[in-house]
Amino acid sequence: MRYDLSIIASWIEPGSTVLDLGCGSGDLLHILSVDKGVRGTGIEREEGKVSQGIEKGLSVLHGDINEEVADYPDGHFDYVILSQTLQQVYEPARLIREMLRVGKRGIVSFPNFAYYRIRGQLLFRGRAPVSRELPYEWYDTPNIRVITIRDFRRFCRKEGFAIEGETAVSTPHHHEKGAVVTFLPNLLATYGMFLLSRRGA
Amino acid sequence: MSEYIEHSPSGTSVGRVEKRFLTVAEADRPLTVESGRALGPVVLAYETYGQLSERADNAVLVLHALTGDSHAAGYYEPGDSKPGWWDLMIGPGKPIDTDRYYVICSNVVGGCMGSTGPSSTDPATGKPYGLTFPVITVGDMVQAQKRLVEHLGVSKLLSVVGGSMGGMQALEWSVRYPDMVRTAVPLATTTKHSALAIAFNEVARQAIMADPNWNGGNYYDGVPPAHGLAVGRMIGHITYLSDEAMRQKFDRRLQDRCENSFVLEEPDFQVESYLRYQGQKFVDRFDANSFLYITKAADYFNLEASHGCGSAVAAFAKAQCRYLVASFSSDWLYPTYQSRAMVQAMKKNGLDVSFVELEAKWGHDAFLLPNARLSGMIARFLDRALVDAAKEDARAL
């Protein structure tokens, strides 16, 4: 299992209900359902991945995460996951608020743009960074924003999202091996992962 | 229902099958239809494939579209030119696997493929009903099927599966008899016809009624309104295709000629010839009055109005099953927005639903064509339903 996904999985209680926004072909939900008896639903934009997810026995909806998340009743899921998609979201505050409306908790992970190698590319080469985690040139990237771990914490404070848990990891892109980074995470971690809830909830 | 009936690329044929009949309503135990009349006797033609399990938890009800019938799979005689209409989906090793599931398919009430309809004899007069047959609805089709399903010893269906008007019946089943439905698979369908869909049906009906042979529906001892019915079917076929499908299939190609004939009655274009052929073929197997009744039933269908006082969310509040909804990108008869609307209403009720819009250029007909993704999803969806059913039974013990 991908290292970053194994961290997310470790946060999820057995037998809970999970909504995975941008679930791809449903790998995480499948593992959660097999290992933890989770009842999962995924939302995915690509038809081929949607059908692969359904063929894994999952419930998957074909559509846009911003629109599809809106229809569920309040508190319908125990967890709503947004894994490595935040950098492509047009209105992050609105989406995370919706996540925390339909879910009791939200899990958000993203590639850390303050990772030292990314800083180095800008500092020493003077070019827009291209890394394994963010492998696109400036002219072909689907990503519309860059996020650092420190910025995300600040954003949560400002928007009133309570951070219940936080893990920074160093792992190659989509790799099974990795390590938790506790020393200077904003400099040394490739990914930031946050467990959120509504303030006061 | 389309002309694209083919053998499945996977699995084997269910083999020789038999059409059977069940009287689901008698004069003293009639079917009270939505339009208010009591109908009896009512016979349903049906077929079953596979074996009902001991716990009776593996029954899948397959629901046919507008002009379909109970013959969903297999063949009647070894020399049959075509198998049942969904043979690619139903059979041993196929997505609706008859080695695992007990498959039931019945012809709808109002039809002309063995079930009671306007061409049946009215016991009161000894003559065909014709237009004295009561107007029926999708709800009436489903309440008749319920009697059949119960007679077969099934109190809870593992799944109700159907496309187009079959999908309407699947949706109707899921909200009318929620205790009897574990999962539902409505394909290429809608909770209510758009004005566009009603318009096409109305033109088709007018074509029949304008045929002098129709004679107010009394033609059973004379010449049937073949031309009107053929035109009605031609209109249907246009709606089942798409602009792209027609371009690929026919474009402006001429049929058996190199130049325009300059004769008005001649079918110059391949598309003309195709539609005429489809119309002719249909006349041989379908009753014009049944076509009027069934298209009207499809037009009347409005799940929101009949189960939710106009609200789709209120209608699906009655449902309890898990859904797999699929639409097709080029279907302009039941466009994707209609499937999305029903999915939205299901979600608002917290129902467990999967939805996919399948990329397909063949228009509405796509649900009957080979599609590996659709097959894979249906197979796995039913498989999970059976596993869940077994778990539930184990918990109940």
Automatic annotation (TrEMBL), chain A:
Transmembrane annotation, as ranges: none
InterPro entries from the UniProt entry: Methionine_synth_MetW, SAM-dependent_MTases_sf
Pfam families per record: MetW
CDD domains: AdoMet_MTases (cd02440)
Domain of life: Bacteria
Gene3D superfamilies: Vaccinia Virus protein VP39 (3.40.50.150)
Protein name: Methionine biosynthesis protein MetW
Species for this entry: Solidesulfovibrio magneticus str. Maddingley MBC34
UniProtKB/TrEMBL annotation, chain B:
One Pfam family in the UniProt entry: Abhydrolase_1
Catalysed reactions listed for this entry: L-homoserine + acetyl-CoA = O-acetyl-L-homoserine + CoA
Protein localization: Cytoplasm
AB hydrolase-1 domain residues: 58-368
NCBIfam families referenced in this protein's UniProt entry, alphabetically: homoserO_Ac_trn (TIGR01392), PRK00175.1 (NF001209)
The keyword Cytoplasm is annotated on this UniProt entry: yes
Primary enzyme class: transferase
Binding site for substrate: 233, 365
InterPro entries referenced in this protein's UniProt entry, alphabetically: AB_hydrolase_1 (IPR000073), AB_hydrolase_fold (IPR029058), HAT_MetX-like (IPR008220)
Annotated function: Transfers an acetyl group from acetyl-CoA to L-homoserine, forming acetyl-L-homoserine.
Pathway: Amino-acid biosynthesis; L-methionine biosynthesis via de novo pathway; O-acetyl-L-homoserine from L-homoserine: step 1/1
GO MF annotation terms: homoserine O-acetyltransferase activity
Main location: cytoplasm
GO cellular component: cytoplasm
Name under which the protein is recorded: Homoserine O-acetyltransferase
Gene Ontology BP terms: homoserine metabolic process; methionine biosynthetic process
Family per record: Belongs to the AB hydrolase superfamily. MetX family.
EC number in record: 2.3.1.31
Keywords: Acyltransferase, Amino-acid biosynthesis, Cytoplasm, Methionine biosynthesis, Transferase
Assembly notes: Homodimer.
Gene that this sequence comes from: metXA
Active-site residues, record numbering mapped to chain: 164 (nucleophile), 331, 364
Entries under Gene3D superfamilies matching the protein: 1.10.1740.110, alpha/beta hydrolase
